[in-house]
Amino acid sequence: MSDDSPPRAKFWDIEGWGLRWKVTAVLAVPVTVAMVLGGLRVQGELSNAVHFTEAADQIVVVPDIVALEASMGTVTSGYASGTLTKEDRADAESLMNDVSEQARNPELDPAVASSINQTVSDGRALLNLMDSPGVATDLLAERQRAFAADFIREVDDIVRPIEDSEVVDKGYELTNAWQAQRRLFEQAMGLVIVKDAYAGPDGREKARTGDIPTSAVVAAAGAESSLLDVLDRYYPKGDERLQALRNNINDRNALIDQGLADAARGGVLPILQLRSSLIASRDVYQELTSAAAKDIAATVQIRAAETRSAALRDTAIVLGTLLAALVLALLVSRSLIGPIRRLRYGALKAARRDLPDAIEQIKASDDPRALSFEPVAVHSSEEIGQLARAVDDIHGQALKLAGEQAQLRLQINDMFETLARRSKSLVDQQLGLIENLEFEEKDPKRLESLFRLDHLAARMRRNGENLLILAGTRVRRSQAAPIPLGDVLRAAISEVEDYQRVQMGATPEGALSGTVVTDVVHLLAELVDNSLRASPPDTVVTFSFARAVDGGVLLEIADRGIGIPADDMRAVNERLASGGEVGPETARHMGLFVVSRLAKRHGLTVRLRSTFDTARNPGVTVSIHIPNALIVSQAARQDTGPQRKIPASPVRTAIPAPAAPAPRKDEPQLPATRNGLPTRTPSTAPPAPSPASAVTTASGTSLPRRQPGASGIAAGAGSAAAPAAQSQDTVNVRGSGAMPKLPVRRPQATTPDAAPVPAPSQPQHAPQAPRSENRAEARTAEQPAPPSSNGDDQAPVRHRYRTNSAKTASFFQSRIDPPPAEAAPRPGGGTPIFSDMVSDWLTDPTGAEGAPGVWHSAGDAGWSAAERISETPVEVDPEIGLPKRRPGDRLVPGTVEGAHNTGTLRRVRDPETIRANLSRHQQGVRNGRATRLAERNSIEGDR
Questions:
Q1: Are 399 and 362 in contact (CB under 8 A)?
Q2: Where are the domains of the chain?
Q3: How far apart are the first and last CA of the chain?
Q4: 171 and which of 159, 241, 497, 719 could share a cystine (Cβ 3.0–4.6 Å)?
Q5: How many CB atoms lie within 10 A of CB 735?
Q6: Tell me: the pLDDT tens digits for 284-333?
Q7: What SS3 class is residue 585?
Q8: CATH 3.30.565.10 applies to domain 456-635
Q9: Residue whose C-alpha is closest to residue 360's, from 768, 882, 930, 771
Q10: pTM of the model
């Protein structure tokens, strides 16, 4: 057990946060989202209230505009027909002054106010034109129509922005009534045409023959009647005002017919009566339009009051809901944090104090079952309570196991050794299979497919990062060390498929801050990928660099594609400058969105321009400006002061493997490309095992270089004299020297430094070592053992734990004692421990199940001596409070020998022979599985 505190976690490492901070973060996210959504809802309601209030202030000018347009129509038609009065002109001038005053309303849109003032000026110009003698009637009519059209457009600009169904209906009602009112002016101008035709020299003759043009009057009256039919939808059935308007239309038609008939007999047209009918209709229309405008204003004011009330109501609801959510979150967090803290305290107490004290008591007590422990102070039945009971169960089981440690000491050591060797064997087999799959692929098409799958996986990974960014969300970055700009660019190039087409010259000095490296690599990869896909496959994409005025770096990525139209490029640059606004085009242009979002996040500037101005394929050049704040000088990256030496990585031993041909000294190097990235080539044959060598460090990096065969086990005695071919582990890196060099793992790099056992291609009969006995036979020792297969007479071999009982007791000693000195490497010969373990693997343990529970051996005397030694009190160091340990102080005297020794030497199993048999067996199993897998793949491919 170690009392050392764990290293202090980084602030950005979420896994290292305390429980209180994690719960706070979990609760803060939904509360923040609720506050944002509630605030947006309240802000929307307040915005609608302000909008309706402003619309209510603007709608006031609409009735005066409608009245002014009608008055100007009366003045124009009266001037044309010769029935204009001073009162009509005075009314028009008064309304112009009122409209001009309303246009000064600060709540009115400046553009609408300016347009209204211009229309009023046109109306004054029209009045001045009437003062000039000999003005044509057609000119007056055209100027009046333009005057009315301008006012209609301005009223529509005022009413249209109001998004309310009732206001929209009232706006349609106002527009239709106004259009019907304008038909009165058209009828008046038609009567002027009739009057002029009748006043001519042959007017009476035309009246008698019916050649006087009355089509304009009839058409205008028909249009008015149609608009009245439309207005029926907005008024009750049989409305008196609409009925009066229809009656006036019929009366005017009757007066015209009667007047033409009288004119044929020498009478006079009833112009004054027609004018009175038109003025009466105008007054009715003014009443309708004024009522519609007032209804619009009233509706807008009602909506403004409703939206203000809704905003206040929503604000109260949001605040109340957030307050309730915070209270509930506080209660839940306390109910969660309290039991967890008690559980943590109980678990740490049991691990650091209770359990070690109980073990010490067990060692000094004769009855370990009398010990008890205090359970964790969590008594609920939910998951935390269940976890507390599990901790109690673990505590109890630990005490129970500690009570049996005296009887199971040797068995536990053997079990640990066996499990460790089996696990090591499985790991070595797994490494061999992985290396075969990785380095023994010789089909170029399959290797190319593997490369394509690799690039496809990189694109899929990048696409995932993109969707995040789309949600607003930020990915955690743990890289803090500055990275050279050349490495950043090469990392971006390595993420695209056609990286061979990318050309990169000398990179500028400096490094990029480690906190932004991942995002900058992502941004550059998106831009390079887009350039490669938008340009012909036989062209290249180039990188260029320059120092910016502010001390930053300007990167440019240029291609020779078909280019982008100027308008589209302007729109793309605007979207890049906006910082990634989510819209309907985001899914279609995900790369553009990601680039703009990453650029905005780190203060980068990204712009597009044409590579060539006059070429057929102008191409596109992307400029990326990295500010000076993100650039770190090379000097800042150099380490200063004393440096800690990095220890060599632990070597890994491997089982003997079949021999492989040694590599030639003129082994071809990896081909280089112009972008500085290595190209992987399929291995033709695994290299031969090399002798163990020291772990070296690759130049350019702080990573240890793995030498082939450095992790092998010691060679056997019989193979110590056989020389092994030595191979060099080289690293080929293309590109500039700024690129860090990484170690290259060679095939069969884990081959042990041992004499390989050749595996015959065909089954052959080979002599096998004597079959190992089981433990029951080894313990009896009643029968004399036959001589060894190698014919050498050797002394009986004892288990190393049985020759040194201090090793068996070391497992249960205090863990804070200094570690023993490192053992010297074992000689080349095999060990009886391996032979004993192999016997356990190859024998059936069912034969020992029927053995009685109590047995006696020649070692009982030794155990009695050990028990007497264990009762000796242990001397404690008063300074540190820990027992003093003396090597060999608790060794059991004597040896464990068989009760009946006949004087005949025991048969010792040859570990080299057993190892060779196991190696041949393992190689045969591998070959069989590989052949079966190849046949299965062939059958599936035929299907």
A1: yes
A2: 456-635
A3: 59
A4: 159
A5: 18
A6: 888 888 888 888 888 888 888 888 888 888 888 888 888 888 888 888 88
A7: coil
A8: yes
A9: 882
A10: 0.35
